[in-house]
Input
Amino acid sequence: MKTGIHPETYRLVAFKDMSNDTVFITRSCATTKETLVVDGVEYPVVKLEISNTSHPFYTGKVKLVDTAGRVDRFYQRYKARQK
Output
């Protein structure tokens, strides 16, 4: 790897999934102004909208969001071709 291109400010950071309040701690150089106490230790916190604990692909709860009937029209076209 090239020298001098990687940040030197890696530290432990808590990432919090806001949809289900799951927190995981990993090393990161992400900047943040907020902190979170986990098991008596204070960490900088980065808030996430979605993570592997709430993403439909990883949880197996896949939802099809149908706007204007596009999914139904696709299934009708596909069904006609199967015959």
Summary: The two ends are 56 Å apart (CA to CA). The chain has a mean pLDDT of 82. The chain has two helices and four strands.
